[in-house]
Amino acid sequence: MKTEPAVQKAQEILMRFGVNSAPVDVKSISEKLDVSVVERSLEDEVSGFLIVKNNHAVIAVNSNHHLNRRRFTIAHELGHYLLHHRQGLFYDSRLTFFRDPRSSEGIDAQEIEANKFAASLLMPESLIQPYFQKRNFDLHNPFDLAYLASQFKVSEQALTIQLVKLNFIEA
What ranges do the domains of the chain cover? Predict the structure, then answer.
């Protein structure tokens, strides 16, 4: 089975920067890729956005949101930067992506892909698997799920979705 481009790109980034433990330092990765990250107070429905102008990128993330949500937003916007903005049409021009409620609806192909990238960057199978080898997790136990989510600094919802996609639990 062929790996999806978003998942493959996340794996490449993790390998490139030698990431081999959770939680993934997504802010550091962004900065190593010359993508600035700034935290700003934004309207509650806006998690963040990416601006690319003259080949310089800035991710703005809503400082009012929980740390886990901010981390996912940074990874999501980084996905847009790595997967979408360099397609000739957007090169060296101003492009803005917003992460808002529509981003999670699963109807826009670029949003779906950016979410896959974010999940694969923050919760890659290679980092999840060792937790299951070391300990017998009962993912129907809220304490075990909360513990694992805390190790990756992601929400329990994001972790559950990723665990289903990776076939660690059934839908």
Answer: 5-123
Q: In which residue are the tokens 């998690």 written?
A: 47
pLDDT band at 86 (very low <50, low <70, confident <90, very high): low
Under 8 Å between Cβ of 26 and 99: no
Answer CATH for 5-123 from 3.40.50, 1.10.10, 2.60.120, 3.40.630:
1.10.10
- What are the backbone angles phi and psi of residue 60, rounded to the nearest 5°? -105, 135
Residue 104 has pLDDT above 70, yes or no: no
The pLDDT tens digits for 130-149 are: 888 777 777 778 898 999 99
The SS3 call for residue 170 is: coil
CB atoms near residue 124 (< 10 Å) = 21
Tell whether the model's pLDDT for residue 61 goes beyond 70: yes
User: Considering only CA atoms, which of 71, 96, 42 is closest in space to residue 151?
Assistant: 71
* Structure tokens belonging to residue 84: 């979408």
Q: Which residues have a Cβ under 8 Å from the Cβ of 15 and sit 6 or more positions away?
A: none
pTM of the model: 0.86
